[in-house]
Design brief:
Elements (H helix, E strand, L loop, with lengths): L8 H13 L2 H5 L3 E7 L17 H9 L1 E7 L4 H10 L3 H4 L21 H7 L3 E7 L18 E5 L11 E2 L2 E2 L2 E2 L2 E2 L6 H14 L7 E6 L11 H6 L13 H12 L6 H24 L6 E7 L25 H4 E2 L1 E4 L8 E8 L3 H9 L15 H6 L9 E5 L6 E7 L3 E9 L4 E9 L15 H15 L47 H8 L22
Parallel strand pairs: 1-9, 1-10, 2-13, 3-4, 3-9
Antiparallel strand pairs: 2-11, 2-12, 4-7, 5-6, 7-8, 10-12, 14-15, 15-16, 16-17
Helix pairs in contact: 7-10
């Protein structure tokens, strides 16, 4: 005989339905967030893709999380980091074409809102452990002013893997603005600090940890045991199908220089070991179940001779807008919410990370300017289709000034545009692919579809008109006579010695809009300009 229904069952069902429909953060408590960022990791240089390098920690994340199979970044370092922190297009921010170099005095506009600032406002503890590379000349650009309670690491790139950690001869290793002299292998030092910070956190509050490695960026170096492990690794990489990368490899062979591949492999495994330490700390602290761990590379692998990375079957590599330069390894794990060993095939970009993590954690984004990214959490969590509105655009002018790699693409068409400027001319090469059907970019359809090339070329043109006139450009050598500081921790101009507002520039206020329009393709004088659509990128609204 069936028992009579309880009068509490309808109420219980209602509560259960509300709980299931609620944001994940409300149902499980605010998750912790850990972002692990590799520097120049190759598409095929991970164990779960059958690569020759041991990466058990990344393999674990792939097994326990979601493989973000079509995750895109910019082709180079600083632009990706800017997009990650702001959720905005680096073209608007003035860091699209090149990285922020030691002699640069720019950074990301202080009026731009950074992702950790939103998490801070929601009660999160925040820390960055690793490489910053988003400005160092003024305190306004410093990580401790951009939403991070704690900063341990380097303001610059290429500081070396062993002491003394420096750039251009100036010391570059600090904790919250004070130089430190920690000794050891840089990658492992970062793991030690991240683990210490997690263990010593306030257990009553969630945390947001950003861990940008310098690995496996050049110049490559690793502990001796790892170098010995890979000393006999053959460099059997297939051609990158990129003129620049393949030419450098050929020249290196002709000069009988040893391949960078073995040391690169050692550096990658070292990074994987460091990631393993952090994952183990999460396990030991009982935090893994409700911690979002996101891993990706800041751009495609450096497939040229000195880099040692392998992106095949993707075409090209770092600095280029073929898939090998912008489509990267990316994994997301949250055991409390996501089924492990799954894959998302929708396009996701680095600009989507801020709105996506904020939505997953139930954190209100406090940006005032319009985000360039989308909330991809419904796609990751439930497989819903999240529409890509318009095109994604990426660019690079690195390393040769006047040599631009550009792209515009959606889920069907992708245009790769290469522009080479001289003082008197410009040469443009267009490569068109049906990217969904041809992800390895083998079948160039530019000649067969000139109308598509024309439309995407015009879209790239309009997008490039947004660039601030003083934005980063490729400058591999310092200004004549420039000298580095002895200690980069002393370099940023303190806040109290700066004006409260951004400098107005030389143009008088009444002429600024007209001068901005007259600059045309030279760039924007007005920051974050939104051109009138019928003026083809001219006068700002």
């Amino acid at each position: 005989m069936r028992a009579p229904a309880s009068p509490l069952l309808p109420l219980a069902a209602l509560l259960l339905g509300s709980l299931l429909a609620a944001p994940a953060a409300a149902a499980f408590g605010r998750p912790n967030v850990v972002i692990l960022l590799a520097d120049d990791l190759g598409w095929s240089d991970v164990g779960f893709r059958g690569g020759p390098i041991d990466t058990p920690s990344l393999d674990r994340l792939a097994r326990e999380g979601v493989n973000l199979h079509r995750f895109y970044t910019t082709p180079i370092c600083s632009p990706t980091r800017a997009a990650l922190m702001t959720g905005r297009d680096p073209m608007r921010l003035g860091v699209a074409y090149a990285v922020i170099l030691p002699w640069s005095n720019n950074g990301i506009h202080p009026d731009e809102h950074f992702m950790p600032q939103s998490f801070q406002a929601a009660g999160y503890q925040t820390a960055i452990v690793g490489k910053w590379h988003l400005g160092h000349a003024q305190e306004t650009y410093h990580p401790n002013r951009r939403g991070f309670d704690h900063f341990y690491g380097h303001l610059h790139t290429e500081v070396g893997y062993f002491p003394p950690f420096s750039n251009q001869g100036g010391r570059d290793f600090q904790r919250n603005g004070e130089s430190i002299d920690d000794r050891g292998y840089e990658t492992f030092l970062l793991a030690d600090e991240a683990s210490r910070w997690i263990r010593e956190r306030d257990p009553e509050r969630p945390f947001f940890l950003y861990m940008p490695f310098i690995a496996p960026h050049t110049p490559l170096d690793a502990p001796e045991n790892l170098k010995q492990k890979y000393a006999d690794l053959d460099d059997d990489r297939e051609p990158a199908r990129s003129n620049n990368s393949d030419r450098t490899r050929k020249i290196a062979r002709l000069l009988r220089r040893p391949s960078a591949r073995p040391v690169y492999a050692a550096v990658v495994e070292g990074m994987d070991q460091a990631i393993g330490r952090v994952l183990q700390t999460l396990d030991d602290e009982g935090l893994a179940e409700n911690t979002i761990v996101l891993f990706f590379s800041d751009n495609g692998g450096a497939a040229y001779a000195l880099g040692g990375a392998d992106n095949v079957p993707l075409r090209g590599g770092k600095g280029e807008t073929f898939e090998g330069g912008i489509r990267v390894v990316s994994l997301l794990r949250w055991p409390a919410q996501l089924e492990g060993g799954t894959r998302m095939d929708q396009i996701m970009s680095v600009m989507d990370v801020f709105p996506t993590l904020a939505a997953a954690a139930g954190v209100e984004p406090r940006n005032e300017r319009t985000l360039g990214g989308r909330d991809m959490w419904p796609a990751i969590r439930r497989g819903e289709e999240v529409h890509l509105d318009g095109h994604l655009f990426f660019a690079s002018e690195t390393p040769i000034r006047g040599s631009f790699a550009l792209t515009a693409f959606d889920d069907e068409w992708k245009l790769v545009q290469e522009v080479r400027q001289t003082l008197l001319s410009a040469e443009v090469s267009n490569h068109l692919f049906r990217i969904r059907d041809d992800p390895y970019e083998r079948n160039d359809l530019a000649a067969a579809h000139p109308e598509v090339v024309a439309d995407l070329s015009e879209a790239i043109h309009r997008w490039r008109l947004l660039y601030p006139v003083s934005g980063t450009r490729s400058e591999l050598i310092a200004p004549p006579g420039w000298r580095a500081p002895r200690d980069w921790a002393d370099y940023p101009i303190p806040l109290e010695k700066l004006h409260d507002e951004a400098a107005p520039g030389m143009a008088p206020a009444y002429a600024r809009r007209a001068l901005d329009w007259m600059h045309g393709e030279g760039g924007r004088l007005l920051y974050d300009c939104e051109p009138w659509p019928f003026l083809n990128g001219g006068l700002c609204r």
